[in-house]
Amino acid sequence: LTYASQRSAINSRPSLSVDELKREWPFLFMKKFLMQHFTSLTGIELYERLRECIAGKGRRVLQFFKTQLLRWTKEVKTVLADIERLQGENMDSTIAVILLMMTFFKEKDDAIFLLADRFHPDIKKWMLCVEGKVVIQSVNPQDDFTSALAVFFASFYIFNLEYQAEAASTLEFIQRFLVRINPENTK
Amino acid sequence: LNSHVASFIKEFTNYDWLN
Predict the structure, then answer these.
(1) Tell me: the pLDDT tens digits for A110-123?
(2) Which residues contact A91 (CB under 8 A, 6 or more apart)?
């Protein structure tokens, strides 16, 4: 019901900071309502689309890289070896594909991911940071990496943010290949 | 469209189609 008012607050000039928006629209900063806002904006059920896409294409992307091993840089080979090693250990294939693509595009993983506690890298909780501030935290232990990726990707569209230059290729890959948003005349 | 992304998608699509 408040979608139109939220859009007009986000698009207002001079623009509000994300912090100010959060004060005005606290519900928009809860995962459920943020994802609903993205669906109203784009017509896409983002979490479902990412899950389907990774289930379908993820294994084929890994195959694409594995079958042409000699072509890749040392860094890509290292990531592929790590993925191979972790394959039996319930590895999240969304993480595998994103890290592999970041390495392939020669982008550093810290252009998207910051480990909050580097001594406990296995903790599965995540937070989303915008303009240097934490704006959403996962509260449900069921929230997987794909839900973090969905919230992260949705925030660019919802808050009119530009992709950061350090991760621009990976983000455009996510947009076109995984989410399948291909604006016309930009082939 | 970022040319790195475009060439990856093109190559992958060809590979995927052939395999």
Answers:
(1) 999 988 877 776 67
(2) A83
* Interchain contact, A177 vs B9, CB within 8 Å: yes
pLDDT digits (tens, 9 = 90+) for A56-85: 899 899 999 999 999 999 999 999 999 999
Q: Residue A26 to residues A1, A82, A93, A142, B17: CA-CA distances in angstroms?
A: 15, 40, 32, 22, 46
Which residue, chain included where needed, has tokens 């809860």? A30
Instruction: Show Cβ contacts of residue A164 under 8 Å, excluding neighbours closer than 6 positions.
Output: A111, A171
Contact flag A169-B4 (C-beta cutoff 8 Å):
yes
Element (H, E) at A170: helix A168-173
Q: What are the chain A neighbours of B1 within 8 Å (beta carbons)?
A: 172, 176, 186-187
Is residue A159 within 8 A of residue A10, CB to CB? The reply is yes
